[in-house]
Design a protein that fits this description.
Elements lengths: L23 H7 L9 E6 L5 H10 L4 E3 L7 H14 L3 E6 L10 H8 L2 E4 L5 H14 L6 H8 L6 H18 L5 H14 L1
Parallel strand pairs: 1-3, 1-4, 2-3
Length: 198
């Protein structure tokens, strides 16, 4: 799969966009929007997994219209956007947060149309992707972290995108409080603090 260039700014996430098995199929599908059923796709993703960046990239590349956090918008507005996209022959990407029981749509006309759309998902990162995420978040904070260190943390970290970000934030905070460079002792303390928050 080819790499995609995503504009990342402060506070938006890691220093670089990390691709892996958890998001590869979704990214591939975004580049083939003309083949989507009714030119519509619904991307479901967990917190801090990059769905907003992907939606922005999709729209910015002129591949179609993207509606981020569509599950928070009035359903009548979404139905209007779906109709407009069909009239204009424009692909429509809707993103929603992963939630227990899935995205429940009450408006029957919208529900039936979204049921026919292509459904994409960003899943939990595997070991390799989690280590890459941890390394990217450390890079964004200018924290020294070896490949071995990232692998050590990945094997003990909560297996989510948010978990990787939270862990590195804790390491950074403890390191600043102690005024020492992060190492195994700080890693262990941060891992314990992260576990206590679950």
């Amino acid at each position: 799969m080819g790499q995609i260039a995503l504009p990342l700014g402060p506070g938006q996430g890691p220093a670089r966009f990390v691709t892996g098995e958890a998001n590869r199929a979704a990214i591939d599908a975004l580049t083939a929007a003309q083949g989507w059923p009714f030119r519509t796709a619904v991307l479901i993703a967990p917190p801090r997994s990059g769905k907003t960046l992907l939606a922005g990239w999709f729209a910015g590349q002129g591949l179609g219209e993207a509606v981020d956090d569509a599950d928070h918008l009035p359903e009548a507005e979404l139905f209007h956007r779906w109709n407009r996209a069909q009239e204009e022959g424009m692909p429509l990407l809707l993103t929603a947060a992963a939630q227990e029981g899935g995205w429940r749509v009450a408006l029957p006309d919208l529900a039936s149309r979204l049921a026919s759309a292509l459904h994409l998902e960003i899943g939990a990162p595997d070991d390799a992707m989690l280590a890459d995420l941890i390394a990217a978040h450390a890079e964004a904070r200018a924290l020294p972290l070896s490949e071995e260190g990232a692998a050590y943390l990945a094997s003990r970290c909560e297996r989510t995108h948010l978990g990787a970000e939270t862990l590195i934030a804790a390491i950074d905070r403890i390191s600043l409080e102690r005024k020492v460079a992060p190492g195994p002792a700080i890693w262990r303390e941060a891992l314990g603090a992260a576990a206590d928050l679950r």
